[in-house]
């Protein structure tokens, strides 16, 4: 028995179901009609950097320790997350330890690739020029095949949707070709997984151009057919995504909201965000041109403000993609010595706020006895804030970190996490002008939603074509372990999706077995992570 997992980053039934109904996704249509499917509920927030570690560990972020694309560095600086930061055993580590051969291709947050029985080709967040595969000979072989490790870097040089589409189709084809090659190279594989991140990229940039998105999905459908043919008949298949997708309506400026409440203070200096430092990545150079623009106050903030006053926003939106000039965002900077709360991340329609706590933050000013009072006041005000243009509620749900996370790493999470209304407002940490909301500089873009996709098909899967309701992304790791007749660690948060299995099949008949985690295992895993 083999398991093949195919990930479509950002894959959504809002795109898939109409295409299946019209016969334009024959392979995915076959999987749905002859298997089972469901909405796959993502993490909060529904973001690549959290969702994939939650998939690969079966645990909530409070147990695996990844809450964003970045983590805290020195002071208020940030560092890009990596596989080193996932403080829990991955699915392929557990399978490998049980003697199973695994092929893992392009799963985000897998750099540096860990040594397993089989191979790992790391995905999103792999630094430029890094050795993205283990064993090393796989890296050399894929380089000769002109494999592209991170698609988002390639498409930045293109402007039109058609050129980006053509580039993404080429990258997805190379991704599939590499996976097929590895399936031959490790021909006794037990578990194989590949993620196509190209669906996420096209939807972020061109949500309004459905024909462009449809074309990419149709091409990936043909690649899925190739993977199924190579895998053979005795394989159980899972098609999944880390989150869904939908349109962006407006931007909600979180730091301005906090400024209006009196919890965040500004001063003039370098543009906000210049404090960001990134491990393993080169910091972009600030040219003489950039410094001259800042000196004379020519910033993105000012250009946007002037365009809005002159009713030229549509023109600015049209040309924004074609302008590739680095200019400062704003002359404002955060005055940390007078700031009590600040936007901690910029991750789409779900956002985070951190209290500038004394003893925790490098210039923290909030006393411990003030912490809960300030946090509760911010939560109360978030739920009250409305779009001044239409009176619509901006924030849908607000959570304290302990409301949604549990485990040893909850203290590393932001203090407040919130979802915008219907996830249609992008919550941003940018400091543009003096308004709570604004029109996006580039209209027609898409962003994440909570509901991803789950489709299961194979000899041990029900062939009823039914919608089983809903599943959670953390349920997939324990389900796959159970499919291999392996014990499930008792500290995994997900549950085995027993309702997907065909009655009478060996997997349906066997009992789900959990096992206790020993202190020795915990210590060994911590030491192994330190060696990555």
List the helices and strands and how they pair.
Layout: E1 2-8, H1 13-21, H2 26-33, E2 36-41, H3 48-57, H4 61-64, E3 70-72, E4 78-80, H5 91-97, E5 102-107, E6 118-122, E7 133-134, H6 136-144, H7 151-155, H8 161-185, E8 191-196, H9 198-206, H10 210-231, E9 235-240, E10 244-247, E11 250-253, H11 254-261, E12 266-268, H12 288-295, H13 300-309, H14 313-319, E13 332-334, E14 341-343, E15 350-355, H15 368-384, E16 395-400, H16 401-404, E17 416-420, E18 425-428, E19 437-438, E20 446-449, E21 451-457, E22 466-472, H17 476-483, E23 488-489, H18 506-509, E24 514-515, H19 519-531
Parallel strand pairs: 1-8, 1-9, 2-22, 5-6, 5-8, 11-18, 23-24
Antiparallel strand pairs: 2-21, 3-4, 6-7, 9-21, 10-20, 11-19, 12-13, 14-15, 15-17, 16-17
Helix pairs in contact: 8-9, 8-10, 9-10
Question: Could you give a short description of this structure?
Answer:
This protein is α/β, with parallel strands linked by helices and 532 residues long.
Q: Name the CATH homologous superfamily of the largest domain.
A: Alkaline Phosphatase, subunit A
Task: Specify the overall morphology.
Answer: globular
For this structure, the CATH topology of the largest domain is Alkaline Phosphatase, subunit A
End-to-end Cα distance: 31 Å
Number of domains: 2
Strand segment count: 24
CATH level-two architecture of the largest domain: 3-Layer(aba) Sandwich
| Major β-sheet annotation | 9 strands, mixed
The strand line-up of the biggest sheet is 7-6-5-8-1-9-21-2-22
Number of helices: 19
CATH class of the largest domain: Alpha Beta
Radius of gyration: 23 Å
Query: How much helix, percentage-wise, in residues?
Result: 25-40%
Average pLDDT, rounded to a whole number, is 88
Structural class by sheet pairing and helices:
alpha/beta
Given as residue ranges, the uncertain stretches (5+ residues, pLDDT < 50) are 271-284
Strand coverage percent: 15-25%
């Amino acid at each position: 028995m083999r398991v093949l997992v195919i990930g479509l980053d950002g894959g959504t039934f809002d795109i898939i179901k109409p295409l299946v109904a019209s016969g334009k996704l024959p392979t995915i249509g076959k999987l749905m009609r002859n298997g089972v499917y469901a909405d796959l509920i993502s993490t909060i927030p529904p973001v690549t950097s959290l969702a994939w570690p939650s998939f690969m560990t079966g645990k909530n972020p409070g147990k695996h320790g990844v809450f964003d694309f970045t983590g805290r560095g020195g002071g208020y600086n940030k560092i890009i997350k990596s596989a080193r930061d996932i403080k829990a055993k991955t699915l392929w580590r557990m399978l490998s330890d049980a003697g199973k051969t695994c092929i893992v291709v392009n799963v985000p947050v897998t750099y540096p690739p860990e040594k397993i029985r089989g191979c790992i080709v790391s995905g999103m967040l792999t630094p430029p020029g890094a050795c993205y595969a283990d064993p090393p000979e796989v890296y050399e072989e894929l380089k000769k095949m002109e494999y592209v490790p991170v698609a988002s870097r390639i498409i930045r040089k293109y402007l039109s949707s058609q050129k980006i589409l053509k580039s993404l189709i080429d990258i997805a084809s190379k991704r599939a070709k590499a996976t097929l090659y590895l399936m031959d190279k490790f021909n006794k594989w037990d578990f194989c997984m590949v993620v196509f991140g190209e669906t996420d990229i096209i939807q972020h940039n061109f949500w309004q151009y459905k024909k462009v998105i449809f074309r990419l999905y149709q091409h990936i459908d043909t690649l899925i057919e190739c993977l199924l043919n190579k895998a053979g008949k005795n394989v159980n298949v899972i098609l999944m995504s880390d989150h869904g997708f939908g349109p962006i309506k407006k931007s909600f400026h979180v730091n301005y909201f906090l400024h209006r409440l009196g919890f965040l203070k500004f001063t003039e200096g370098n543009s906000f965000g210049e404090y960001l430092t990134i491990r393993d990545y080169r910091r972009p150079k600030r040219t003489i041109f950039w410094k001259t623009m800042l000196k004379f106050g020519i910033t993105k903030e000012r250009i946007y403000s002037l365009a809005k006053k002159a009713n030229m926003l549509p023109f600015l939106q049209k040309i924004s993609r074609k302008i590739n000039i680095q200019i400062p965002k704003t002359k404002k900077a955060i005055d940390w010595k007078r700031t009590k709360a600040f936007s901690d991340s910029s991750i789409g329609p779900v956002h985070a706020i951190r209290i500038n706590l004394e003893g925790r933050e490098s210039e923290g000013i909030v006393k411990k006895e003030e912490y809960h009072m300030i946090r509760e006041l911010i939560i109360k005000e978030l739920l009250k804030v409305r779009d001044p243009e239409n009176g619509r509620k901006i924030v849908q749900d607000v959570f304290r970190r302990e409301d949604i996370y549990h485990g040893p790493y909850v203290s590393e999470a932001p203090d407040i996490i919130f979802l915008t209304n219907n996830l249609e407002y992008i919550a941003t940490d940018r400091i543009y002008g003096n308004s709570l909301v604004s029109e996006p500089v580039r209209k027609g873009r898409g962003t994440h939603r909570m509901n991803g996709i789950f489709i299961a098909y194979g000899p041990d899967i029900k062939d009823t074509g039914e919608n089983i309701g809903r599943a959670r992304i953390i349920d997939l790791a324990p389900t796959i372990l159970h499919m291999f007749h392996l014990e499930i660690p008792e500290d995994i948060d997900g549950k085995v999706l027993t309702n997907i299995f065909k009655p009478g099949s060996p997997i349906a008949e066997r009992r789900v077995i959990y096992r206790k985690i020993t202190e020795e295992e915990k210590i060994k895993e911590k030491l192994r992570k330190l060696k990555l």
